[in-house]
Amino acid sequence: MGRNAKRQMGPALAIIASCLASVPLMAAEQYNWQAAPSEQLQAQLTIKEAILRAFARNPKIAQAAAQISVGKANLDEAQSAWFPQIALQGGLGRSHTTDSAGSLNSNASAGVNLKQLLWDFGRTGGSVDEQENLSDAYRFQLYDTLNSVGQQTLQTYLQVKRYQALSAAAERNVRSLNNVLEMANLRANAGLSSQSDVLQAQSRIAGMNASLEQYRAQTRSAQAALSVLTGVVSDNLPDLPEDLLRQKISLQSLPYEQNSAVRSAQAKQLAAEQKIRQAQAQHYPTFSVQAGRTRYENDHGDYWDDQVQLVVDAPVYQGGAVSARVDAAEGERRNAQAEVEASKLDVNQKAATAWADLTGAQQRQQAGEMQFAAAGKAREVYGDEYRLSKRSLNDLLSVEQDVFQADSSSITARYDAWDAAVRYAGAVDNLLNMLGIERQQLTGDTLPAL
């Protein structure tokens, strides 16, 4: 990636900075440690808005964006070695110089020196290439952080939806049990059954109400976690796009080249290779041009000293320091290469686990839906037979339990499948694209349009 392309990261950082403007930076002594991040009520919270709001609030994104600025500054510093180095010098005090032509005294001096690097056998070039690769690594770390924050937000979003659905299932079962209680009351009042049927129905309703309150508490807990991530409290959360469940899944040819974590590790490996190049170049001399003009003052008048020189700096012996630097750089390269393989392994493990969980959850959902349909038909038949005294209340309460169990199992499996689909999309770094968060084209790579 060229230098001009690197400079295009400025607008991207401005986008991130504007997104993070709601998180002011304060001096430590001025920061109010008791002040929690603000939250607001909202009628509806869409998936895209939830993720973008999480981007604005998560400090890890600010940290990754700041690291990009550090990388850009380090790159500018490395590139500065190719530019002329200009320095002013001056001195005040007695100076005495003696040579074969005689002696020369001066009381003060002032001048300017210019030094231009000509060639150093790849030392400076390696430094520039190293910082360019590190800048790439920092940028991909930002992309990986965005993906991780998006996945965390979406999984929390799904938890809210899960417990809302389970609460609704418990409410449906409570209404159905109230219908059973009404039938038991009618039969008991007509002398067709004992009052124990009424007590059994009331006991079952009380138990289901306890389960309902538990689901509501879990819903509130999940909503609290989502509000911390997004800054929004909302009960209305739209469903996720079905494309997540229909995404192409392949464990044989995972797109490692598209994963930001892998690309970041690869960029660090390339940077380590350039560090080896820098260390090896220290065995060779450095050529530069040095020019200067100095004015001296003495008791008998002033004079100028002008110089233009080709300077060669050639190390002869440094006690093995250069060889040690080369060995250290080789070790860093091997470490970076291992990090690339570890990143690939992590992607593989996450994708494989998500695929297995998705397959199992979809099968459980199908079984739960079939069980729910069968239990629903049995509930209708048992209700009619209970009215005709052909079934006991225990039979009717038992089938009501079967209906709720099948309903809750189906809901749990459905959201387990959603969670697995989100984890797979996050593992292959395709989650933001599938959720419709457009990415702005920058230097051949992408950054979310915040």
Provide key terms for this protein:
Outer membrane efflux proteins (OEP), 10 helices, elongated, 450 residues, disordered N terminus, transmembrane, 4-stranded antiparallel sheet
Please give a structural write-up.
The chain has 450 residues and is an alpha+beta fold. It has one domain: Up-down Bundle (Outer membrane efflux proteins (OEP)). Helices cover 62% and strands 16% of the residues. It has helices at 3-7, 9-19, 47-57, 59-79, 123-189, 195-230, 260-281, 321-387, 393-427, 431-434, and strands at residues 40-41, 85-99, 102-119, 232-233, 286-298, 301-313, 439-442, 445-448. A 4-stranded antiparallel beta sheet has the order 2-3-5-6, with no helix packed on it. Strands 1-4 form a two-stranded parallel sheet. A hairpin with a 2-residue loop joins strand 2 (85-99) and strand 3 (102-119). Helix 4 (59-79) packs antiparallel against helix 5 (123-189), helix 5 runs antiparallel to helix 6 and helix 7 runs antiparallel to helix 8. The chain is elongated.
